[in-house]
What does this fold into?
Amino acid sequence: MTRKERMWAALRGEPVDRVPFATYNLHPYRNSPHRQDESYRELLDLVVEKAGMVCKCGVKAQVAGTETVPQERLEVTVDRTAERTVTRHTLHTPKGDLVSVTLTPRGQPSRVTEPFLKTDEDIDRYLSLPFTPPQYDISEAVAFYEELGDRGLLYIHYSDPLYAAASLFDFEDFTVRCATDPGPVKRLVDHLFEQILEQTRNLLAACAGYDFLFYTAGPEVATPPMMSPQAFQTFVTPYQTRLIEIIHQAGQVAAIHCHGRVRAVLDEIVKTGADVLEPLEPPPQGDISLAELLERVGDRLSLMGYIQDQEFYTAPPGTMARRVADIAALVNGRSRYLMTPTCTPFQHPADETYRRNYAEWIEAADRLLA
It folds into this structure.
């Protein structure tokens, strides 16, 4: 089997000739930041030689974080000083303006200091917005798909209505609303769901003929301790069940991306009909072992991940090989598992410890998985 064939077989629950492993968004193709970073050169050579690759790919007209804000109704003003940049976004709705403010201190990350939605009246204003479902240009994704070839597979993002709603609020306010006064939030999520259904149908139509892995990261905001399992059941399960149903009708595979604690919502994730759960953070970042995950999901869900990215930065020599050996003892001889790190490498340049541990993981996976 090629690397791509092996990965797809594992995710679809089909027989594999050996347990597959893949990097998580570490590759030398298209606009990879790692290809431009000399510190990753030897590591990327090793990746191409021995590892599969799971690569996230953007699709034109679906930009993360803006699918809930119609660009044609958005007015943006920027105030820059030597110390900071303040960006004011004004969204013109038929029932009045909504305002969001983003602050970017010099040399620091941006943060939203005022969200679009702050009151129930703001929710009503947002609901008055007209909606035209976007069309999608997948030419960049197709070029990436062809360049990657049989060495890996591409992730394409689809939206989640709960996350789309949460992105319009201060998140603390949003979680309190979900717990204490869920009615207005539920009305907004229902509204966004109908729009996202149309978006997703158009996206699937544009991607027909290509085997992409369709993923959503939205459900992770509804996991403990941020939200309760009951909130996941209310605000995630029914919507994802329908979205995954249309993904399956299009002949595609659906993955739920969910960092952190998933034990209390695992049964709900299975209920959605998702094919894959990732990235499976081991304890203590997560709260469930791979052994328990394998036992609880059986053949109902494929699993991807469980190599904690943080260990690449700090672990002493030999640690990653032991991690692979422990996992191999659990998964060898079975399908429905794809070994990957839990995160994209973000260190630039990569230091010697990171490069050594990542290479050790690849070599051990190549040697020990069967």
Summary: The chain has a mean pLDDT of 94. The first strand starts at residue 22 and ends at 24.
